[in-house]
Design brief:
It is a single chain. The protein is mainly α. It has one domain. It is built from 5 helices and 2 strands, in the order αββαααα. Helix 1 crosses helix 2, helix 1 packs antiparallel against helix 4 and helix 2 runs antiparallel to helix 3. The longest helix is centred in the C-terminal third of the chain and has 19 residues. The radius of gyration is 14 Å and the shape is globular. The N terminus is likely disordered.
């Protein structure tokens, strides 16, 4: 897949997606990716094409413009929280299929979606950054299923 040109809006959504997938804190170009069939995680350097692909799918499905828009750029320009919806159902289905297609069990994917619902809202409102604790929580969720 050709590498898309990233705008501020894409970057913001990609940051959230790589966080959910387990980005290594402090180094946004190093992404932990589940390796199907091994039960383990591998580091994939540079932009994770999977995360980029999913980000663009979510942006397209949500009808968002790929140009920078206030709800996707810097926290100082974000609208009031009431103007932003949590993850819409269609995006949840896309994400569930996405996680399952990469080897995650249904129960684990469902748990991740429940956790990520709040995470999505926090990230797009500028209330939460990519953190190591999110990675740890994600690993714990996956290990428990």
């Amino acid at each position: 897949m050709p590498r898309p040109t990233h705008c501020a809006g894409d970057q913001h959504v990609i940051s959230w997606i790589t966080d959910v997938l387990g980005v290594c804190s402090g180094h946004p170009k190093v992404v932990w990716k589940y390796k199907k069939g091994t039960g383990g995680w591998i580091i994939q350097g540079e932009w994770n094409e999977v995360a980029v692909e999913l980000a663009h799918m979510l942006l397209k499905q949500s009808g968002a413009n790929h140009e920078p828009t206030p709800q996707y750029v810097l926290p100082s320009t974000l609208p009031e929280p009431a103007a932003i919806e949590p993850i819409p159902d269609h995006a949840r289905y896309i994400m569930m299929d996405f996680f399952k297609s990469r080897g995650m069990k249904q129960a684990s994917a469902a748990k991740v979606l429940e956790v990520s619902r709040g995470l999505w809202s926090d990230i797009i409102r500028g209330r939460r950054a990519v953190t190591q604790s999110t990675w740890v929580a994600f690993r714990r969720l996956h290990a428990s299923s």
